[in-house]
Amino acid sequence: METLRELCEHTGVSRRAIQGYEKAGLMSAAARNERGYLLYDAKTQDRVRMIKLLQNLEFSIREIAELDNLSKDEVRREVDAHILRLRQRKVEIDEYIDQAYELIEKIS
């Protein structure tokens, strides 16, 4: 078990973000120590990493909470669809970058 500070250090997630996850009901502490500090287990550490990954994939906290109500197969489908949309955006962004370079060449 580890404290909130240690959880933050091990996951690279801020204290404020973890408190936000808790407030949204995405996770909770496993226990408290004798000083009253919240303690988190390895399962919670994995959960924080998963939440952060989903946020990096541009899922909102609300969307992540909705995923919790789905079956594993439904979650896979939702994440796959989301990744497909991100891949399509990546292609569009790459095209914009190419167009920007072309414009720069014309200006030079």
Automatic annotation (TrEMBL):
The keyword DNA-binding applies. Residues 1-70 form the HTH merR-type domain. It comes from Coprococcus aceti. PROSITE patterns: HTH_MERR_2. Transmembrane segments: none annotated. InterPro entries: DNA-bd_dom_put_sf, MerR-type_HTH_dom, MerR_fam. It holds the Pfam family MerR_1. Gene3D superfamilies: 1.10.1660.10. Keywords: DNA-binding, Repressor, Transcription, Transcription regulation. This is MerR family transcriptional regulator. It comes from the Bacteria.
